[in-house]
Structures are given as structure tokens and as C-alpha cells.
Amino acid sequence: MDKKTVLRVFGEAFLRSMVVLMAIVIIGFSAFFIIKVTTDKKQMAGNSTTESGSTYSDDELQAMLEKENANDTSHDPATEETTTEEVTTEESDIPSTDKKILVLNSTGVSGLAKKWMDKLSGEGFSDVATGNYSLGREAQTKIYVAKERMGKDLAEYFTDAVIEVGSLDSGIDVSTDGVEIFIVLGSNDTTVQ
Questions:
Q1: What is the CB-side half-sphere exposure of residue 93 using CA atoms within 13 A?
Q2: Which of 175, 152, 10 is nearest to 95 (CA)?
Q3: Is 64 left (phi over 0), alpha (psi -120 to 50) or beta?
Q4: Is the separation of the CB atoms in 93 and 150 below 8 Å?
Q5: What is the pLDDT of residues 93-117, one digit of tens each?
Q6: What values do phi and psi take at 49, rounded to 5?
Q7: Which of 28, 63, 81, 167 is 20 to 30 A from residue 11's alpha carbon, by CA?
Q8: Does pTM top 0.70 for this prediction?
Q9: Contacts of 101 (CB under 8 A, 6+ apart)
Q10: d(Cα 14, Cα 21) in Å, to the nearest integer?
Q11: In angstroms, rounded to a whole number, what is the distance separating the alpha carbons of residues 96 and 87?
């Protein structure tokens, strides 16, 4: 073989290997992109919450917006007075004593949820159950409630408890049927007083 033939064969082999290598790189990046987009969509779907922390579907949010806009009227003085009165009228808190409550231990302190269940039952909360929370240890106790204005009477028993509107569907080792209030015990509430 002469030099030209060797160079031509080498060049063709080199170009073919570059094309194959580029194809592998493109397929790899495509697979990574598809996995990333799919994962992000799942996370966004799981985290579709309003600023107050409650979870609503897009259809529910749209219906709420349409209802609010339907009730909106022009600058009618009578309407403005009514609206002002509604805003200044304070709605009372919803008591938790008759709600189904689930106390979840995220601290790793054995029996802590039961101690808090006994404490709350002794304070008049009639339907309290316990379980473990496996999605990580919380530093601060969190109270998840089904509706606004709920859980404030529970928060006074805990150190700096945070109340959020929402629900827990994962990380729980017991049934959550009918539960309206979830209390995830944080490490700041490991002693019951």
C-alpha cells in the first residue's frame, strides 16, 4: 500500500469513529434531558401549592379566580361599604378538639408521638392517633391543617410550631384516612410538659 491509500483508509476510519462517538454523545444528552424534564414535571406536580401552602389543582385555582372575578363589581358605593365590612369582620378560629389528628414522630426519640398523643387527649382533643414520619428529621414542629384558621389551639402546646395548610401523603407508616390535622414533631419538642 502506498501512503495515500493508508492516509485515506485512516481518515475514513477516523471520520467514522467520530460520527459514532458524536451519535453516542447526542443520545446520552437526549436521554439525560428527557429524564431531567420528566423528574422536574413530577416534582412540580407534587409541589403545586399556593403561597399559603395549601395544595389546589390548576382547575380549582382557576375556578376560585373566576368566582372571585364574578363577584367583583364596579365602583358602586354600596358595594364598597359591604366589601369593607367583610374585610374588617374577623372570622373565628376553627377548634381542633373534634378533628382527627395524627401525631407523627420525626425525631427518632422512641415513644415521643405517644406521649404527645396522651397529652393532647388529656387536654380534650378527642381523636388523636400516632405514627412515624420517615421523610427526614424536622428541627421545628409543623402542624398541617386541612383549612385556614385551624390548628391555632394546638400550636400553643408546642415550641414555635409552624402551621401550614396542606396534607401529608407520604413518609407516614399509618393510614391517613379522615385526618384533618397532621402534627410532625420536631426536635424542639422532644419533651412533653
A1: 11
A2: 152
A3: alpha
A4: yes
A5: 889 999 999 999 999 899 999 999 9
A6: -125, 160
A7: 28
A8: no
A9: 120, 125, 127, 128, 129, 154, 179, 180, 181, 182, 183
A10: 10
A11: 24
Q: Which amino acid makes up residue 133?
A: Y
Q: Which residue has the cell 379566580?
A: 65
Residues making up the chain, counted from first to last = 193
Residue 123 burial (CB count, 10 A): 13
3-class secondary-structure state, position 63 = helix
The three cell numbers locating residue 188: 424542639
Q: d(Cα 114, Cα 130) in Å, to the nearest integer?
A: 6
State which of 11-15, 50-54, 80-84 shows the largest mean pLDDT.
11-15
Grid cell 395549601 in the structure block, residue: 54
Helices (H), 72-142: 77-88, 112-122
Cα dihedral value 19, 25, 26, 32, nearest 10: 170
Placement of cell 401523603 in the chain: 169
φ, ψ (nearest 5 deg) of residue 31: -65, -45
Q: Edge-to-edge strand order for the sheet containing 181-185?
A: 127-132, 100-105, 181-185, 142-145, 162-165
Q: What's the grid cell of residue 182?
A: 397532621
